[in-house]
Amino acid sequence: MxxxxxxxLLDLAARALARxxxxxxxxxxxxxxxVAADEQGLSSHGVSRVPLYAAxxxxxxxxxxxxxxxxxxxxxxCLIDAGNGFAYPACELAIxxxxxxxxxxxxxxxxxTNSNHFGATSHHLEPLAEAGLVSLGFGNAPASINAWGGKRxxxxxxxxxxxxxxxxxxxxxxDLSLSEVAKGKLMVxxxxxxxxxxxxxxxKDGNPTTxxxxxxxxxxxxxxxxxxxxxxxxxxxxAVALTGAAFGFEADSFYAETGNxxxxxxxxxxxxPGALAGRDVFLDRIEILAAxxxxxxxxxxxxxxxxxxxxxxxxxxxxxxDALYEQLQTLAGTNGATA
Length: 339
Prior knowledge:
Number of domains: 2
Number of helices: 11
Largest sheet: 7 strands, mixed
Number of strands: 13
Shape: globular
CATH topology of the largest domain: Ribosomal Protein S8, Chain: A, domain 1
């Protein structure tokens, strides 16, 4: 393992992405989100994604120079076209728009179309929580989950997250995918030569498997069975039908270096508590719930572990596998090798 300072890792990831064709702004926004995921212990959504992102940019699956723009808007709603570029600059634009529009209208929705993988969903919500806004975020992904009763993967793992600000404390963060586990965990297990537990995935013939490579070629088990599959369909409709993006079954796998433009969709909702019962009422009520939860010593507030890990990472650094660190150096051109 190699111990990296977050700022060192940010520079390395940004250099690797820029060298693959990302604009400076896209490279920095993407690297910032990936390093933030590693700081919070979410290695499946961290800089382990850089090699694939770089390959996608080199192979035309991501338009590295794309600049997101607002293509439609009315009142509290806006649609952002990511231009088939990296998702992260489009998400940053969406969050800026939401902050302004939610304060003006009380609630706001920002949809994103022609987008790509957008990493840990909760990363995008933290600025909204810091602004005192309640928020939801969700998006679709290439097909991994079968429609309930079917065998063909149609829906993505389709993550959804929520962030609730608190008074003088980190926000409550809920972040989950609608598969039993995030597909990125299979990617990490496959990379490291590890098996996965039964119940995470099925092979291409529909059989439960402990082989992460077989699971990536097959389908993911939905969280909660039929209920998870229905929620995955709901996210497809919210993130795709409202934005004109591509359904999961229309997009090639994130894990293939070559393929079509993903054209995925994301959606973000922000709510100003002041437009309802009031900011102070909301903050009082969430503290009552938090206190009740923490009366049980076995309970941890959602997001608390992530914030603790981030503080530790910023103080002590982030551990990376040797092979990944060397790969990032090669992609960044910092070790004398040619990417």
